[in-house]
Amino acid sequence: MQVVKYIFQPHSDERGQLIALEEFVDIPFKIKRVYYMYDTAKGVRRGYHAHRQLEQILICIHGKCKVHLDNGKETKEVFLEKPYEGLYIASCMWREMYDFSEDAVLMVLASELYNEEDYIRDYDEFLRIAAQ
């Protein structure tokens, strides 16, 4: 399994850092939805699903967390801790986010609007779809 991390170009001066993200320039898809997670309780795992069509970029804009990826054949653990680094997650990829630091803010850029029908929440169903 290939893990794709995007390194975004920070712009800095005496005032601080700035990251600008543009669809089809820095992000490989049209951004239709943005959301973020924070104040995640200690020991909590988020995710536990895959998507049929949706693609995502995960950016831990503050703090750190880990992401478990599973394509149905192999798994990888990815550490996110840099606000200028984004993890690309393709469709049909099971994901679980965990080990959030107390100050973690995980931002997600999504290629589609929320659609419950796009979610694969049952792991056995995911494995059947991934094997096709």
Description:
The chain is mainly beta and 132 residues long. The protein is built from 1 helix and 12 strands, in the order ββββββββββββα. The protein has one helix at 123-130, and strands spanning 4-7, 10-13, 16-19, 33-38, 46-51, 56-62, 65-70, 75-80, 85-89, 94-98, 105-110, 119-120. The strands form 3 sheets. Strands 1-9-6-11-4 form a 5-stranded antiparallel sheet, with no helix packed on it. The protein has a 5-stranded antiparallel sheet with strand order 8-7-10-5-12. A two-stranded antiparallel sheet has the order 2-3. The longest helix is centred in the C-terminal third of the chain and has 8 residues, at 123-130. The relative contact order is 0.29.
Largest sheet: 5 strands, antiparallel
Structural class: mainly beta
* Rg from alpha-carbon coordinates: 15 Å
Task: Tell me, rounded to a whole number, the average pLDDT.
Answer: 97
Overall helicity: under 10%
DSSP strand tally: 12
Q: How large is the count of helical segments? A: 1
Arrangement of strands in the largest sheet:
1-9-6-11-4
Gross morphology is: globular
Q: Uncertain regions: pLDDT < 50 for 5+ in a row?
A: none
* Percentage of residues in DSSP E strands: over 45%
Order of helices and strands: EEEEEEEEEEEEH
- Report the span from N to C terminus: 16 Å
Question: What layout of secondary structure does this protein have?
Answer:
Layout: E1 4-7, E2 10-13, E3 16-19, E4 33-38, E5 46-51, E6 56-62, E7 65-70, E8 75-80, E9 85-89, E10 94-98, E11 105-110, E12 119-120, H1 123-130
Antiparallel strand pairs: 1-9, 2-3, 4-11, 5-10, 5-12, 6-9, 6-11, 7-8, 7-10
